[in-house]
Each structure stands twice: as structure tokens, then as C-alpha cells.
# Entry
Amino acid sequence: MRGLYRDLRFSWRTLAANRGFSAVAIVTLALGIGATTAIFSVVNAVLLRRLPLREPARLVVVWEKNQRRSKSRNVAAPANLLDWRALNNVFEDMAALVALGQPMALTGMGDPEELIASYVSPNFFRLMGSPAALGRAFRDEEGGDGGPRVATLSHGLWLRRFGADSGVIGRAIRLGGESFTVIGVMPPELPSLLPKAELWIPFHLDPSINYRERAGRYLIVIGRLKAGVTTAQAQTEMAGIAARLEREFPKFNSGWSVNLVPLDMDLTEPLRPALKVLMGAVGILLLIACANVANLQLARAAAREREMAVRRSLGAGRWRLVRQLLLENVLLAVLGGAAGCLLALWGVGAILAAGPKNVPLVDRARVDGGALLFSLGVSLVTGILFGLAPALRLTRVSFYGALQQGGRWSGGGQRLGDVFVSVQVALAVVLLIGAGLTIRSFLRLLAVDPGFRPQTLLTLKVSLPGTRYAQPGQRVRFFERAAERMKVLPGVSSASSIAFLPFTGLASATSFLIVGRPAPPPGQDLVADVRIIRPDYFRTMGIPLRRGRDFTARDSAEAPRTFIINETMARRHWPNGDPIGQRIVVNMGDTTPGEIVGVVGDTMHYGLDSEVREMVYYSHPHLPFPFMTFVIRGSGAPERLIRAATGVVRELDPEQPVSDVRTMDSLVAESLTPQRFRMLLLMVFSAAALVLATVGVYGVVSHSVSRRTREMGVRMALGARRGDILRLVMAKSAALAIAGVVIGLGGAVALTRVLGTLLYNLSPTDPVTFAAIAALMTIAAVGAGLMPARRATRVDPVVALRWE
# Structure
């Protein structure tokens, strides 16, 4: 133990005496370990850490599977849920929540505010295994018709609007114009299954209601498996139940099955591919950093060859020297790891700030004990693994030759350094190609036409409470009056409104029939997205009218029903005819046929990388939804219209909150956040890799020039010109670059295929990207050898021949 302590003190003094080398090595390792620790912290929070629920491994999401549309995660029908509960033998219990959050105005507490309520079955929290942090969860008798109106609050809402007041339990609050009693506050770590939901309200399914006749599919179903039952076993039984229901109710269930997904996987599915790619990227960066430090060690070993020879001549054993050198490497790695942890603390904050918002579980990311242990483990492995080769190489030197040569490094060490540099270049090529593919994919995505003009558009959402706007006519008049007042605001050129604004994630779809054509067989229904709009919506958004007319004031509730469809729907169902004047029946609660009066251009609704779906537009009086989003086009910056536009709503109803006040540009930009976030991180990692690899080439070529100073002098004394010496040295860096680039291109072909699902309209083996990165890396690596090459041409032959 005393010997180890003595060696540790000696190692510290050695590193302190070589401050320049130590600083470069520590910074290099800090970069690799810091980036790795930061990404690991996110991966640990999202993919590795257990959900804060009772036995979370037994929780699964029971999706319906639309086999005809290849959609494996479709919301479930209430009727099917009731049958699943009655027929299955694999679940302890099943709970449900309505897939679409219900906007509700919180009033009577200062300024009105719109909150998103999640309607859940009373057994939801009990099944999830998440007791209330304050108060209690729902009871089975709560949520039915005529029962008490109760609600539980999210921890964030309790802090934000109620000041963490424990006296909120039992207090009555007004939501949507009705009185609700607060019975509980849920814990902060409870994962939300609905984005932006801040409170929960119970609801009941009535077994006496024929939901197959009255409702479609709108539930997210959670099941808790019985002890000992696997997800695969449950999937088999539930698929059999789905097949039985398909036979019994062919009109409703033909083409439908079930798909069971573990809850933790379901919550993290959108992030899994990107996080795996980023973890691989930082792993490559760490390897490059380690190879760079190993190269530094090899270069530094040339100066220590005489030292090792003297120590061996004085009786130090080979393994004693290996231990000493490894201690220095481990000490360097630990110092680099400590600096990396500081870098990771900043990195995690930057990732959370720049990353996608409202992603479940990602807010748990932090540099905690697990991340620190990970960093320590990486540091120790790095120090031992990448310090072993230089240590063994240094202790195998002949001390007689070392004492005679005065410390010049052997060719074997130089060859090992060349290998390390070629590996760095190859890994940097892989990382750069991944970043290049991501950049090209992102640029292609930016060039996609969304089908409307988002510039100078302001949007704001209004959700009318059912208590004060129970009659359809009241809703129609409110949105009509608000739009008319907004149109005359200074700087406004047009205004309208829509239910389910593009790029908000909200949507509605249903089946439809074409009058005069035979009804499709069960399971092959025609399906279209449904949007509800007011007149001037297309003009305000900049959506072109291709045929027919727009909605006008004459498309009132009393007038015959009319529809407008998009080009995709017209092309698929009337490829050789004119849809104008054709009649369709859209299954939105009734079977009233309507006439198609217009065809408009296609628009992207879910994102720039989404497919265009068939779409039917309703006139708002014919389907008077209580929530609509105003779209207001101005002549300048849309933010200048916020105060005036929200003032219009408050003038019409002082208790009516306005929510989601955004510019359309920001909504489109936010839809690209995951791609932009992934691209920026890969760019940062690849830039660091390029710098480290270039520095590695510079270091090896520079060391080679120093080692071959006498040779250069002899060549120049025998008549070699400066150009000959320059070509000789540059050939070294070119050889290293070409070897690394060739290996890297082969590795990139194999590894970048994992990017395939993350790229938009681009092959993972895109030849333009591969060629550009190969050229960039070659130029950078060859250029790194230019400075030492120029230094070699300035060698004085007389001085060089007197060297040593």
C-alpha cells in the first residue's frame, strides 16, 4: 500500500512537471467523457431508469391495430374495452383515459386560464400504482352521471396556481363554468400520458350503452398484467379476443386487432432511435479522444525512453514500470473525467433547453450518482485500456540502445502512433458522414412546401365552456363576431378560425361514403381527416382554391350541408371526373349527406415529413365545435397583433381565456425541433471529432519530422530540394488520411444504416455526402501535416548532421 501511495505521488509530480502535455490530455478527455456523460444522463432518464410506479414492468398500453392502414397504435373503442375487461384472463385490471385532452377554463382565481384536463377512469391511478402526494386519488363511485364533480391536480399546477397550499384539498374551483372539488395532488414524477395535461377528472363507461352505434375510437387503454404473465402471453390471448370480436361485430371490428406495448417503451418510443444514434456518436467521440491521448502518450514516451532505461538499469522491474505508467494514465483519465462531469452539468442543461419539449421522462435527466459512477467507470477503463499499449511499448525498449541513442523513439512506437491516427480519422469520417446526412435531410425537410404560407400569421385558441355556450348557435355567433372584429383591427388583412390547426398535433378522422356508390365491405371503410373552418380560412392561410368555391355566410346551419375537400381526396376518388356537385356522407355523428362545393390544395398537417391525407372541411355552423383556433394574417410582425386580438375575445366574454398564442412560423419551426436538435448535436460532436483527428495527424507528423531531423539533413546535404522534403513529409500525412478515410467510408456504410428511419427523402449511403466528407477529411488531415512539413524544409543540414 505504501508503494502504491509512493507511485501515486511520483505520478502526480511527473504530470505536474509536464503541465502542457497534461493540460492537453485532460481537456481532450474532458471533451469525450463530458459529452458521453451528458448523453448518458438523458439516456438513463428516458430509457434505463424505472418508472416511478408500482411494478412498472407489468403495465402495458393496449392499442388497437388497424391492419388495413398498417397503423399499430390506434386509440381504442369504448365498446371493445368493455368486452376486453369481461373476456380476458391476463390482466388484473384495465383503465382508460380519453386520448384528446379537454380544454377547460379555470375562472374565479384572477385572470382566467385555459387548462388541459385528462378524463380518466376512476381506477386509473390505482392501476398505475401512483398514490396521491396530497389528498387522495379517485374512488370507483366518482365520475358517474349525477355523482360529485371532483378533480386531482398535477404537482406543477398546484405549485403554479395554488402556491403549494395544502389547504387546496376539499376546495371548490370553477372549471369550464362548473364547480369541482379538489381531492388530491399527484406526485411530480408521475409520467403524463397526455401532453400539457395539468389535472385529471374521472369518467365512467356505461355497459348498458351500445357504444358501437354511438361512438368511435378515442381511448388510451392501460392494463396491469397478472403476476407471472408475460407481454407475449397477453398479446396472444388479446389477439384471440380481437379475432372473436371481429367475427361477432364485423361492421365495427373488421380489419382490427390489438397491439400490446410495455408502458415504458410506449412513452419513450419517439426518442429511442435518436438517443441510440446520439449515444453511438458520443461513443465514437470518446474513442477518438482516447486515441488522441494514447498518441500523446506515445509521442511523450520518446522523451522518457532514456528515463525508463536508467530506471531499469537501476533495478526497476518491467511490471513496476508498467504500474507506474498506468497510474499516470489513470490519474490523467480521472482528472479528465472530473472536468468532464463539470462539462456534463452544463451539457445536460443545454440539451434540455434545446431539446424537444413535452417529452415524457426527459425532465428527469440530471448528472446524478448513476451518471457520476458511469463517468468514473469510463475514466478508469479509458486510463487503463488506452494507456496500456504505450506503457508496454515503453518498457520493452532496450536500455543499452536507449542510452546510446539519446532517447530517440523506435520505429515500432511510430507505427503504433500511425495506427491510432488512422483510427481517429476513420472514426471521425463515420461521425462526419452521420452529421452530413442529418444536415442534408434537414435541409430537404426545410424545402418542403407545407401547402400554406406561415409567414405573418398569428394563431390563438379559444375553447368555449359548455355551461355558458351549450347551444350550437351561441358557439357559431361567438366565433363569427370575434372573426369579424379581428378583421378590422389595424394591420390585419384577413382572419378566420379552424378546429384542429395544422402542426399542433390535434386532429380528427372518420369514415365516409360516396352517395351513389356501393358501400365498401366491412373493414375497408373510406377514411378522411375532418377539419371545421369558418369562411376566409383558405385565403387567410394562403391555401389555393383549385375548383369550386369557398364557404360563405350562406353555408349556415339552416342551409343544406356542404363540404370542401383537398386535392388528394379528389384525385383518389374522382381520378377522371369532377367532384364538384358530388354528394358524400361523413360519419361525424349523423348520416346527413352533403354536397362537395370546392377543392383546395393539399396541406401538411402533422409535420413537414408527414404524408398528405384525404381531408374533408366542414363549415362551422354545420358542425359547431366549442373550440376553434383563430388565424390572423397581418401586414407586419404577427406578435404586434397579440394584445389587440386577445382583447377582442375579452371584450366579447371577460371570463373567456385565450391559450396557445403562437405565430404559425413558430409552430412550423417547433415541429422540426427533434430533427434540428439531433442535427445540432451531431454537428457539435463531429466538429470536435474533426478537430481531434486533425490534431492527431499533426502530432504524429510533427513527431515524425522531429525523429527524422538527421535524415532530412542528410537528404538536403546530398542535394535534395525543399520541394522534395515537402513532398516526403506531406506523403506521410496523406497516407494517414487516405488510410483512415477508406476505413471510415467502409464503417460508415455499415453504421449509418441505423440513421435510415431518421432521414427524410435521403439514402443513408448518399454518394454526395460520402464524397464531400471524404474530401473534407482528406483536406483537413493532409493540411494538418503542412506546418511540420514546412518546418522540415527549413532544417539546416549542418546543424542536423551535428544532432546528437
About this structure: Residues 465-655 form one domain. Confidence is low (pLDDT under 50) at residues 402-412. The radius of gyration is 34 Å.
